[in-house]
Write a structure and sequence with these properties.
Strand content: 5-15%
Mean pLDDT: 94
Low-confidence stretches: none
Order of helices and strands: HHHEHHEHHEHEHHHHH
CATH superfamily of the largest domain: NADH Oxidase
Shape: globular
Number of helices: 13
Number of domains: 3
Largest sheet: 4 strands, antiparallel
Distance between the termini: 51 Å
């Protein structure tokens, strides 16, 4: 089996012709990238980390506004405090390196002030543009890091504790975390996270999700066969009861039924965004 065919089978449970693929090894590596949450104690070289941030900030940017910033958390006390907020994710405090990727609408606002031009960057558009810039930089960083043998784990849950995290990081108005990211050399092989079939996520000409119920059922059972969720991992049984079969879609529906991040929009409105 070619690397491309093996990668498609691992990622989407799809079969592909066992022939060489013109896209090449980079695409094979992207499709085959793995989830990594455990790291060795080896610290990546500082010059390498600097190069990776350069790669991240080379990502595409809306209108060349460049509204992404990267904050590295080095202070052990700050790392420990943030890690203690999320005890179910010990890798936050344990990974050799931890960055926070920031949507930075402040810099453009300041540029307008320095150039005596009115800039209203607290709008929904301003927030969205800065968020996308930061997300693009984050994903580019992850792909660059993985290409040199590092493993990464994005941490969006820090937004759930924005009122506590923002002061720790000294974030001013119009600057907000999109996600943190743990970085280090993998302590184990990690695993490929099975994705939804492309029949559910790739559309032609018009959006069409009529086949979603059947696709979800197949996906749930295929994923369960690879990485079954234990009874202890079922969410909110007091509200929804114990499921006889607990697949990915049941887990995500339960998770989404209990909204996360209620403090985040309140924080944003109190710190420069009127949307």
């Amino acid at each position: 089996m070619t690397p491309y065919a093996a990668a498609l089978q691992a990622r989407f449970a799809e079969d592909a012709p066992d022939v060489s693929h013109a896209a090449g090894p980079m695409v094979d590596a992207l499709i085959g990238r793995k989830t990594v949450r455990r790291y060795t104690g080896q610290m990546p070289d500082e010059a390498l980390l600097s190069t990776l941030t350069a790669a991240a900030l080379s990502a595409s940017s809306k209108s060349d506004f460049q509204q992404a910033s990267i904050l590295r958390v080095l202070d052990p006390a700050v790392r420990s405090t943030i890690g203690a907020m999320f005890p179910a994710m010990p890798w936050i405090g344990a990974s050799p390196v931890f960055y926070v990727f920031l949507g930075d609408a402040r810099r453009l606002q300041r540029i307008g002030e320095l150039r005596s031009k009115p800039v209203a960057n607290g709008t929904l558009e301003g927030f969205f543009n800065a968020s996308v810039d930061a997300a693009l930089a984050l994903q580019t960083f992850i792909l660059a890091a993985e290409s040199v043998g590092l493993g990464c784990c994005p941490i969006s849950v820090i937004r759930n504790r924005i009122d506590a995290v923002a002061p720790l990081l000294g974030l001013p108005d119009l600057v907000f975390p999109v996600a943190g990211v743990c970085v280090g050399y993998p302590a184990d092989a990690g695993h490929v996270s099975l994705r939804l079939p492309r029949a559910a996520t790739v559309h032609t000409d018009r959006y069409d999700d009529h086949a979603l119920p059947g696709l979800l059922d197949t996906y749930d059972r295929t994923r369960d066969a690879r990485h079954a969720l234990t009874p202890q991992q079922q969410r909110n049984n007091a509200r929804f009861g114990v499921a006889g079969f607990y697949g990915w879609s049941e887990d995500k529906a339960r998770q989404a039924a209990d909204p996360e991040g209620a403090a985040f929009p309140l924080y944003l409105r109190a710190h420069g965004f009127d949307f």
